[in-house]
Amino acid sequence: MARARRRSPLRRRSDRWRSALVEIQALGLVAVAVLCALLGLGFYQQGRADALRVAQSLHLAQARVTGRPYPSGVGGDLAQVSWTAPDGSTHQGVAGVPASDHTGDQVQIWLDGSGNVSVGPTTTANVVGTAVISALLVMVGADAVLLCAGAVARSRFNRMDQEAWAREWLVYEPLWSRRR
Fold first, then answer.
1. pLDDT for 40 beyond 80
2. What's residue 12's pLDDT?
3. What is the pLDDT of residues 16-27, one digit of tens each?
4. 110 Cβ contact list (under 8 Å, min separation 6)
């Protein structure tokens, strides 16, 4: 069937180019999807390696909430906490606490190598989410470029067809309208 269409005398050169363009775009979309999946996997592996490296430099400590928790705007509350260092000294700082905690509750906080409050290591869910969103954004951008390029090419083909039709009409219109 496709071979018969290729041999059709009514098939214009631009029709062949349009068919090739559709095939190229389809292959391009598949290639972009595969490359973005590999890119997402690379983002995930790099994110996990970074999270493990950060986790090795942090340690958990038991702390007590000493101030009234207040909303931080993102994922829980912040509160003044105090904890005892391994050398027996007491420290204070501000740390993220669950929204349900109150003054006097015990919480676990992350401390860096120098004993300061730190954000905990990135969770696997955050790494996966970041990798997926990053890869999807790259894919959407690449697909948009590919589809826009195809639209520009089709527009050019249409313009070429209109110009060819206008040239042919100048020849055949007088014959068909019987004007000479």
1. yes
2. 79
3. 888 899 999 999
4. 58, 59, 60, 61, 117, 118, 119, 120, 121
pLDDT (tens digit, 9 = 90+) per residue, 68-122?
A: 888 877 767 888 899 888 788 888 888 888 877 888 889 888 888 888 888 888 8
Which residue do the tokens 């050398």 mark?
87
What mean pLDDT is predicted for residues 148-155? Answer: 95
In the numeric block, which tokens belong to residue 147? 């589809």
| Predicted TM-score of the model (pTM) | 0.71
Beta partners for residue 109, in sequence order? 61
- Annotate 126-140 with b (16+ C-beta within 10 A) or e (fewer): ebeebbeebbeebbe
Between vectors from CA 15 to CA 13 and to CA 20, what angle results, nearest 5°? 100
Report the distance separating Cα 51 and Cα 30, nearest Å.
31
